[in-house]
Amino acid sequence: MALADFDALVVGGGAAGLMCAIAAGQRGLRVCVVEHANRVGKKILMSGGGRCNFTNTGTTPANYLSANPHFCKSALARYTPWHFIEMVERHRIAFHEKELGQLFCDESSKLIVRMLLDECEAAGVRVETSCSIESVEHADDGRFALKTSHGRLRAPALVVASGGLSIPSMGASGFGYDLARRFGHSVLPLRAGLVPLTLSGKHQDHMAELSGVALPVTARCNGQAFTHTMLVTHRGISGPAILQISSYWQPGDDLRLDLLPGEDALDWLRRHQAERPATELKTVLTEAMPKRFAQRLCDIWLPGDRAHRPMRQFTPAQLQAMARVLSDFPLVASGTEGYRTAEVTLGGVDTGELSSRTMESRLIPGLYFIGEVVDVTGWLGGYNFQWAWASGQAAGTAL
Ligand SMILES: Cc1cc2nc3c(=O)[nH]c(=O)nc-3n(C[C@H](O)[C@H](O)[C@H](O)COP(=O)(O)OP(=O)(O)OC[C@H]3O[C@@H](n4cnc5c(N)ncnc54)[C@H](O)[C@@H]3O)c2cc1C
């Protein structure tokens, strides 16, 4: 089959790959994006409940997990949320801030994919969908040759933007990790992040009847804390607070919940004791959290008749013990729901072997890794797309 020559080949037509291709194409480079799914940007389409939380205006390097927390700084500083917002506004896509700096499309994620494809077209980027890669060769002259289902492609630069392992049904593959290893790169251990946690045994029994209940909590683990909603599911727990903390949790780690976020539990109990001495503890708790949750808390964690005693009957020591249950509630999770539902993959191509300015391999000139395949993972809230845009732009302007 004929060999088509390009200046750069980008594997993966997701957020990072398209962004990189646009930046390189705008500089006059001949770029081809190779996407094995039948359309580009499938994760963009399904993101943010179909409205794509495309960035977060409060993005800082502190919003990312990586073995090297400094690695993401350069790219994030050079391509900020405001750069992406400028593109969104130029394409007249209406958006709004939902909360905490999270920007969503008013209408649909489809508009973001359309915008990226329009930019690709304007920049002369060739996009090959339903195109599978059969082999990757690295010739002595430094050029990369891809044998694909659409023919042979060759270029002096190969950008790996094939994403992580989450949601295999959307085209996720381990391609980028395998390729990195083949070229001598280290891949740091992979695991599902931003993922619901599962409970088992008595811990699941305790929560089982509460499926569907949502309440605000502060979830704490390994020195991180997130205050947001927790949702009890039929297999475990989910909701933004749990998804966020899941990235910091591994089996066996101590995970604690503050069930009265923003309150000092002991002060709160003392206040109620002073102001409403005749009111039952259960009634007081029911006013602070969903009734079913308060009921279960009383049944299991406040045994005997304690929940039905009026507040005045509790000794200071008993109030202290109760405050501990409310502010430092131990949640024993057994695992995660895994890549089937995870929003991201933690770990990935070791940043120690990449340039933080260009994303180029320090081992193989001309080889680049961008987006989620790299060991940089954002919090929930638009940070992962911002990393995809920023790392894509960094490579696209350096190629
Ligand atoms: C349900 C869900 C909702 C999300 N919502 C948000 C959100 O609202 N905001 C946010 O910031 N982040 C969100 N994320 C995370 C975000 O989607 C990813 O972090 C981001 O898409 C990563 O960009 P990427 O370009 O590195 O990878 P991807 O966007 O995953 O793109 C990788 C591309 O490579 C292709 N590919 C893989 N293997 C091959 C191969 N062998 N050959 C050719 N092509 C290949 C894939 O088909 C895919 O198109 C969400 C994730 C999920 C799963």
Automatic annotation (TrEMBL):
Residue stretches making up the RsdA/BaiN/AoA(So)-like Rossmann fold-like domain: 7-397
Hydrolase is among the record's keywords? no
| Keyword Flavoprotein attributed | yes
Provide the cofactor list for this protein. FAD
Pfam families from the UniProt entry: HI0933_like (PF03486), HI0933_like_1st (PF22780)
The organism's place on the tree of life at top rank: Bacteria
Please list the residue ranges annotated as the RsdA/BaiN/AoA(So)-like insert domain. Answer: 191-344
Q: Which UniProt keywords apply?
A: FAD, Flavoprotein
Matching SUPFAM superfamilies: FAD/NAD(P)-binding domain, HI0933 insert domain-like
Quote the protein name from its UniProt record: NAD(P)/FAD-dependent oxidoreductase
Q: Which organism is it from?
A: Marilutibacter penaei
